[in-house]
Amino acid sequence: MIRETEIAHQGLCFHCLEAGERGAPLLLLLHGFPEYSGAWEEVLERLAGRFHLVAPDQRGYGRSSKPGEVKDYAAGKLAGDAAAILTHFAPKARAVVGHDWGASVAYALAIARPDLMERLVIMNGAHPIPFQQALAAGGAQSAASQYFHYLRAPEAEARLSANDFAKLEKLFAEGMDLSWLAGERLARYRAAWAEPGALTGMLNWYRATPLKVADPGAPLPDSALLPLDPARLRIRMPHLLIWGTGDRALLPEATEGLEALCDDLRRVEIAGADHWLHHQKPDEVCRLIADFAG
Question: How far is CA 215 from the centre of its chain?
């Protein structure tokens, strides 16, 4: 059974979904844009018999707190939230699982607090070094990520909220299979997007990141990018990267060279899935997570 929990941290409140018995090995599940804790329903239902699973609405999303300043969404603060939620339940997680922007938080937590997790699972997400390199190259990933500019624009909230979030839903589905998001589930997503301050909080993740996106065919020089130290950003724990091969938003080039940044990396591809692999192939995704974390 999935249950709800509220956690307080530094004056903020985080709404979480929980499943499984407390005291079982902990899996912390971190969603991306434009999802919320409910993104993990399939995983919570399938793995509750083996693990204690916790899926928060991350800062700015759903029913969690939504600070009003862009600076409140810096990576260090997001990782601090994840650390506080994790340690509320256990001294250490068996694994932290991140998808999309949740992958960015999971990487940040793995780098800053490796003592808090035994293993790291990333699903269609990117480590900051290869991702920034791909975004700056002016190639396919730069072209696929031009939506960053759209989401960072001051008028983004008005555009995306119009007509019951029609453009946000269209952006969600761009070039990918969204058949899983319909009916009552779509209504729950729209309700999460409509929470006061949520859309601004969600967009502030894009506004706060120092990642820079080149125009197609116009690579950015290294001098224009934030210096990223491979030694400081190394992933020390066993790391599983699960990849839906049909992703049109995040391309394989965003993970090129990841092996050189990890002590122990395993890659697994899932055919017939795209960016939303945990909804499209939940049995396969959950089997991979359980085997890796078991």
Answer: 24
